[in-house]
Protein: WRP73 protein
Organism: Leucopsar rothschildi
Amino acid sequence: ASCIQHRLVIRDASSLQILQLYTCLDQIQYIEWSSDSLFILCAMYKRGIVQVWSLEQPDWHCKIDEGSAGLVASCWSPDGRHILNTTEFHLRITVWSLCTKSVSYIKYPKACQQGMAFTKDGRYMAVAERRDCKDFISIFVCNNWQLLRHFDTETQDLFGIEWAPNGCVLAAWDTCLEYKVLLYSLDGRLLSSYCAYEWPLGVKSIAWSPSSQFLAIGSFDEKVRILNHVTWKKITELDHPATISSKKTIVYKEAEKSPTVDTERLTFPPTRALASSLFSTQSKYEISQVPVSLQYIKPVADRANPKVGVGMLAFSADNCFLATKNDNIPNAVWIWDIRKLKLSVVLEQLCTIQGFQWDPCQPRLAVCTGTSRVYLWSPAGCVVVQVPGEGDFQITSISWHSSGDSMLLLSKDHFCVCYLEREEV
């Protein structure tokens, strides 16, 4: 699905053939599929309206108007039959049922980075709340929206919450001004509290491993700390130095060069294919000899949100690898072998890393840097893929298909789909 101003376009994922066209009441600012892909919501925050469209019944549609309460966020519940709208100033969360047309309200949601989280099986929802100048967490049962547990947290300013994939443990972390990660059970008991240091800026990012065995915490001190699921104690610290000196680490460096053009084939005016090859540069990976010095940027100390610390974390689907980005070294992706707790590979790019995402089916990482290229790494090696097409297609984010056969490449105004061939077994 993609949106252009007022229009919503539904395409076939394999052929990109247009299946449905819908026209909304205003400019679409957010779209989201239901879990079973039968419905899609379009949020128009400026008008405080959500429209829902059905793929099975194109004539059916639904309109939800929050009225004077306004709208700042909208999402599906895991069952794909309820919509949760957050009103302006985070006064409440409104739960709308598509089946019974009933409405429920959740009061005092906290305005934070990640204030709502569902368990992977869709049974429970945790909501961060703020009332009487204190932080609370409420846990709801999703099938009837009944309150299961309500408890206060030992935080000064709760910043985010996230369930472990197995749904047994909820991680909550404090604002960056205080290093504190709290781990709660489903019934609200505090299992553990972790603090690595005091006074400097604290937690910047958090990621659970798919097996729920590890919790990786990225910090402003340029380190990742990994906690185990038995004692919730630190098992290792992963540093991000500006110089890679270990001979056991492979450093792939992106190199750019202009292609050679056969002058005998040169005609005037040149053909379109020849003209594009004349002015385009090619990119490939080269293996650097250690020690390797990476581009290090010293953060500006007197500005808000300094570019410092580990801001991106992601585990591979098989739990074997962890990819990280240290904002001080913006052009590098670090890939750690979790089985050995050692740095395995560093990808040094020519441009700043915009994002990366693991293949959901195998250990294969896709990276984008705001250029017209996508970079793929697997234990077998690295490859640079040039996106064909005219004009400047700057890839700013990547989204894998659940099958791992294709991925969506997004720029500011365009998108394209990259299809990957599977190896014959």
Notes: Residues 272-279 form the longest helix (8 residues). The helical segments are 272-279. The mean pLDDT is 92. The longest strand covers residues 124-131.
